[in-house]
């Protein structure tokens, strides 16, 4: 029986913009017993910005990736994923697709330098020009298949995630439909307890009743379908987090954007570790974790926690 390994996202260990360096994050993850890390691209970019400015962007990123891998190896940590690639899956214009594929190839090279095996991509999200994307699953699948072939050249698996505020695709079922069209062994799910629980059951701005009417019923129906539909080998990796209720006015939030979708506000500012009920955790994430593990899943489990605390400039 495989032993499940636990990772944490680098941007869950403090925001780079608040002065938390990637070196300190790796050291902290080792000190607290994690086996590996998801490398958030924003953390890699922040480290690359410390390199000589006359180098090209690609050279700075590749050099930074090598340094991160060297430190991770010295600490006995595995770098498991690079994320989140986006603004790609639903693109309609071949020229737009090609531009993003050039960036995707750089990401693949960065994965190779860091000995990462998982390339994570999310569905199209708020902020993208919606006139440039389509909800046509055959177009999305064609783009994802192209990405899958690119990833194969670098011996990578593509983890495809549906954030709960995705423009066209925001459920695991919708991603599954795309994956059925793609039909490639190296392209599979990134499942996340927050996204599934919030989409199926959550009411992010309702402090009195953070679960919608019939939310538990809807979630259980979704999980029953998941048990019938997804095979454990089709899960590239599994992310865990709960959340507290969000403030619709976003008072005091580091990045205030009243136009963003409500689930995005909650995700950016309120995601906490599972079982932190004392902090006000409100989503039925344990039910989701149990359903995934009952499938026989035994791959990487990663904590993805995004909270206003990550902007604290404290060093501990």
How much helix, percentage-wise, in residues?
40-55%
What is the number of beta strands? 10
- Specify the CATH class: Alpha Beta
CATH architecture: Alpha-Beta Barrel
**Low confidence ranges:** none
Distance between the termini: 36 Å
* CA-atom Rg in angstroms: 19 Å
Give the helix tally.
Answer: 10
Q: Which superfamily, in CATH terms, is the homologous superfamily?
A: Divalent-metal-dependent TIM barrel enzymes
Principal-axes shape call: globular
Oligomer: single chain
Major beta sheet, strand line-up: 1-2-3-4-5-6-7-10
What value does the average pLDDT take? 96
Helix and strand succession?
EHEHHEHEHEHEHHEEHEHE
CATH-derived topology: TIM Barrel
Determine the strand fraction and express it as a percent band: 5-15%
SSE class: alpha/beta
Number of domains: 1
The main pleated sheet reads as: 8 strands, parallel, barrel
Note the topology.
Elements: E1 6-9, H1 22-31, E2 36-40, H2 41-48, H3 57-74, E3 78-85, H4 94-113, E4 118-122, H5 137-153, E5 157-161, H6 172-182, E6 187-192, H7 193-201, H8 215-229, E7 235-240, E8 242-243, H9 262-270, E9 271-272, H10 285-294, E10 301-303
Parallel strand pairs: 1-2, 1-10, 2-3, 3-4, 4-5, 5-6, 6-7, 7-10
Antiparallel strand pairs: 8-9
Helix pairs in contact: 2-3, 3-4, 4-5, 5-6, 7-8, 7-10, 8-10
């Amino acid at each position: 029986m495989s032993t499940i390994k636990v990772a944490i996202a680098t941007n869950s260990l403090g925001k780079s913009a608040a002065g938390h360096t990637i070196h300190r994050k790796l050291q902290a993850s080792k000190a607290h017993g994690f086996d590996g890390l998801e490398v958030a691209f924003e953390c890699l970019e922040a480290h690359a910005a410390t390199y000589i400015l006359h180098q090209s962007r690609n050279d700075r990123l590749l050099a930074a990736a090598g340094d991160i891998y060297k430190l991770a190896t010295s600490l006995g940590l595995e770098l498991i994923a690079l994320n989140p690639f986006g603004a790609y899956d639903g693109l309609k214009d071949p020229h737009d697709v090609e531009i993003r594929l050039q960036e995707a190839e750089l990401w693949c090279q960065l994965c190779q330098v860091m000995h990462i095996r998982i390339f994570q991509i999310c569905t199209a999200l708020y902020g993208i020009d919606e006139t440039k994307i389509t909800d046509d699953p055959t177009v999305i699948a064609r783009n994802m298949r192209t990405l899958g072939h690119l990833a194969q050249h670098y011996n990578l698996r593509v983890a495809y995630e549906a954030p709960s505020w995705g423009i066209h695709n925001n459920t695991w079922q919708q991603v599954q439909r795309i994956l059925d069209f793609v039909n490639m062994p190296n392209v599979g799910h990134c499942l996340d307890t927050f996204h599934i629980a919030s989409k199926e059951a959550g009411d992010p701005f309702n402090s009195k009743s953070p679960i919608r009417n019939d939310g538990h019923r809807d979630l259980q129906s979704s999980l029953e379908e998941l048990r019938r539909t997804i095979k454990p080998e089709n899960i590239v990796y599994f992310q865990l987090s709960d959340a507290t209720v969000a403030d619709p006015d976003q008072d005091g939030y580091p990045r205030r954007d009243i136009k963003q979708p409500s689930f995005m506000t909650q995700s950016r500012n309120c995601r906490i570790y599972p079982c932190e009920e004392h902090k006000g955790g409100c989503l039925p994430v344990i039910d989701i974790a149990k359903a995934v593990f009952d499938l026989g899943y035994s791959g990487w489990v990663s904590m993805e926690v995004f909270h206003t605390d990550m902007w604290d400039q404290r060093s501990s």
